[in-house]
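Hi Y.,

Following your request, here is the sequence exactly as I used it, all 196 residues.
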Amino acid sequence: PPEQAARVKKLQEQEKRQKVEFRKRMEQEVSQFIQASGEPRRRFQPMNKIERSILHDVAEVAGLTSFSFGDDEDSRYVMVFKKEFAPSDEELDAYRRGEEWDPALAEERRRLRELAAQQEEAELERGPAPPGPPNDYKDKYRHLIGSDAAKAAARTMEANKAYGCVPVANKRDTRSIEEAMNEIRAKKRLRQAEDE
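Below is the corresponding structure, written out as C-alpha cells. Let me know if you'd prefer a different format.
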C-alpha cells in the first residue's frame, strides 16, 4: 500500500535528520573539548551503537583518539582523548575494568614493578645460594642444650624398632587373597540368608 510506503519513507527521513542533528551536536561538543585547554580527555554519556559510531567518526575527523568502554549495550560510553594525551595500555585497562584512572597510583605500581625486576636481576647475578642451612642448628640452640649434650644425644640415637616396616612374622593374617575373599563372600551370604 502506498500510505505504508510513505510512512516508511517519512520514518527514514526523520531518522536521517536525527542522525545529522546528533552529528552536528557531537561536532560542537568535540570542538569545545579541543578548545578546553585543561581537559586531556572527555567522557560522554552512554549512547547506542549508531550514536557511538557517529561520535568515533567525528573524533577521528577532528584528529582525536576515541574508545568505547562498558560491558552491556545500555551502559557503553565513548571517551575521547587529545592526541598528546593518548591513553597508555594501563589507562585503557583501568577503564575497561570500570575503574577511574589514577596516574599517581599507576606511577607507583610501575615503580614497584621496576624495583621487583631489579631485585630479580640482582638475585640472578648473585647466582644460586649455597645448598643447606647457612648455620648449624646446634649453634642456634647452644644456650639450651650446651655443646656436650648435643654430641651425646647424637651418639645415643638409635632406630626405634616399633616404627617403620613390619616383618612378615608379625603380620597376623596369613591367608591368601582368595581365601580372604571366599571368607568375605561366605559371611555376606550368611547375612543375606539371616535377613530373609
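The CA atoms of residues 53 and 78 lie 9 Å apart.

Thanks again,
Q.
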